[in-house]
Amino acid sequence: QEEKKQLTLKVEELERKLEATNAQNIEFLQVIAKREESIHQCQLRLEEKTHECSSLARQLEMAIEDAKRQVEQTRERATSRERAAQSKMLDLETQLSRNKAELNQLRRSKEDAERRYESHLQDLKDRLEQSESTNRSMQNYVQFLKSSYNNVF
Question: How confident is the model at residue 135 (pLDDT cuts 50, 70, 90)?
Answer without folding.
Answer: very high
